[in-house]
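Record type: monomer structure entry
Structure origin: computed from sequence
Chain ID: A
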Amino acid sequence: MSPMTPSAKADKIERLSRDIQDMQEEARRISYELSAVRNRTENGWEWEVTFYGKKVHIRADDFLRLAQVKENASSRELFKELVAWKIRSLSI
């Protein structure tokens, strides 16, 4: 493998810098377009999630049922799947 020329290094660093800026912009945008509030209800916990202006409710029971079916999935993956499923159901 031949060493990189100074201009190739500069181009690579510039691309990396743009990629990082894009990730920062995406993180900033997501933080404004996603919010979650946890509430105590008569039947346990519930999360009120607002995503791009669409509000859905995720109950702890829903989460635990899905966790039993998908034992190897992380909590984060399960929560994202539930939110996505509920938002899709609003669009139908």
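Annotation 1: The radius of gyration is 20 Å.
Annotation 2: The first strand starts at residue 34 and ends at 41.
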